[in-house]
Amino acid sequence: MHYLGRFFHLKKKLAFDGLYKSDEALVYPIESIFYPNKTGSPYSFNQLHPILFTNPSKIIGVGKNYKSHIKEFDSKIPSEPIIFLKSPSAVIGPSDKILLPKNIKGNIEYEGEVAIVIKKKAEKISEKNAPHYILGYTCANDITARELQKQDGQWTRAKGFKTFCPLGPWILPYEEFPRFQDLSLKTYVNNKLVQSTKTSAMLFNIPYLISFISQVMTLNPGDIILTGTPSGVGPLKANYNVEVEIEQIGSLINSVTNESKLIKNQLPQAKSEIVYKSKKSKNLIRKK
Hints:
- The protein is mainly beta.
- It has 2 domains: 51 residues; 213 residues, Fumarylacetoacetate hydrolase, domain 2 (Alpha-Beta Complex).
- 9% of the residues lie in helices and 36% in strands.
- The strands form 4 sheets. It has a 7-stranded mixed sheet with strand order 7-6-17-11-12-14-8, with helices on one face. A 5-stranded antiparallel sheet has the order 4-3-2-1-5, with no helix packed on it. The chain has a 5-stranded mixed sheet with strand order 9-20-19-15-16, with no helix packed on it.
- β2 and β3 form a beta hairpin.
- About 6% of the residues have low confidence.
């Protein structure tokens, strides 16, 4: 398998877009994730850490796209996709901390999801042509303030807080794995399996979602579509670790902390902006 992403070299203090060849354990510098032309000699994967690879103009979420999740909330099956927006400021990368906002009542919950990264500008495209607009897939966690979701009716505030959209660790290109219906999704909290499904269980498949959304808004390169979560969602607490795994990709791992414990105006920076600890990449591929 090969993957597209952005990587940080600790010793060289260098961040770059890269083509990760897992069978060789090498990462080749490339022009960008959209133009993966090699631009230099490869680095050993063990010298690098994955960091956030996109700065999307928007994140589009899809609600109620698995029957199991609809059932656990005693809701109705929608006749067409339910879409919502998450703020780009909610995005964080692998190993970044999820912040639990202070003064928010009720649970802050994880929602493990398959995310789609858009390859090129898409407007009013057909379902048949939608795969041509997929750069690839990655892991996502649609963090949600559940009581606010219920209270507000619409979901923007509940899903829009800073750090409420972890993404990563890298992108599996569509051309590398075109069988979008065969992706395996799992979520672990403190190493306990809490969610498990395959994308074949979606009510609305990935090409349909891209086409549907493109009828409403223009999708730009790097935009993210969150394709929905299965049953098993639950609360996050301070000091928890949450892992979203897509078998064909690897794992997105984030720890959780209370916002109130951080010094005012000194929220944690993205990992691309600070020095890494030396063993961050070890658990990105779960051993079977």
